[in-house]
Design brief:
By secondary structure, the protein is of the alpha+beta class. It contains nine helices and eight strands. It has a domain of 121 residues: Jelly Rolls. Helix 4 crosses helix 5 and helix 8 packs across helix 9.
Length: 196
């Protein structure tokens, strides 16, 4: 008999609770959807959930831990985002279009997640207009966040970038190490220390 790890049951309950706040999602469809999140994993601190070049196609729901999404270059790792408990994450070009990931997703803390395979997720969207609508809204929300971050990076003054991030995501300063926040804001850790 297969036993479900305690964190996986908690993660599914957390996902169910989150989806239950969406008024147009029927409870039976939520239950069916959550039951498809069958992969459970722990990612130790500093280990990778997704590595560049990876071809695995999963959408993950974070139960515990914080992660960073970054683009590695020869000279630096450019941080483009963070993932917190209760949020979904994937290597989007890989998940949406099947292109191997150029990004990495790394655990900043030991993290526990559940996952759904792309083909199962797509099947849920195909069979449920309500979930297709929710996914569209989620993609739009993430796109708006990316646009906000792009505006941040276009601002010439580091203090302006920092203030915009404080306004949008005050919780991030307790969860993410300074060097990754600095990379995300495209400034040196020293500049960030001086401004904080």
């Amino acid at each position: 008999m297969h036993t479900v790890p305690a964190f996986a049951a908690e993660a599914r309950a957390m996902l169910t609770a989150s989806l239950s706040t969406v008024s147009y999602l029927p409870a039976p469809e939520i239950a069916d959807f959550v039951s498809c999140w069958t992969k459970e994993l722990h990612v130790p601190r500093n280990e990778f959930l997704v590595s560049p070049g990876q071809a695995e196609q999963y959408l993950y729901f974070t139960h515990h831990g914080t992660m960073r999404i970054f683009y590695p270059t020869a000279s630096e790792e450019i941080c483009v985002g963070f993932v917190h408990p209760g949020e979904m994450v994937c290597a989007f070009p890989l998940f949406a279009m099947g292109k191997p990931s150029e990004y990495a997703i790394q655990a900043l803390q030991a993290s526990s997640l559940i996952a759904i395979a792309r083909h199962e997720f797509q099947s849920c969207l195909d069979s449920s207009p309500a979930f297709a609508r929710l996914w569209r809204f989620e993609v739009e929300r993430v796109l708006i966040g990316r646009m906000e971050h792009e505006i941040d990076l276009l601002l010439p003054e580091p203090a302006q970038r920092l203030e915009r991030l404080r306004q949008r995501s005050p919780h991030i300063f307790q969860k993410v190490p300074k060097k990754y926040l600095a990379s995300y804001l495209r400034m040196t850790p020293e500049t960030l220390s001086r401004l904080r």
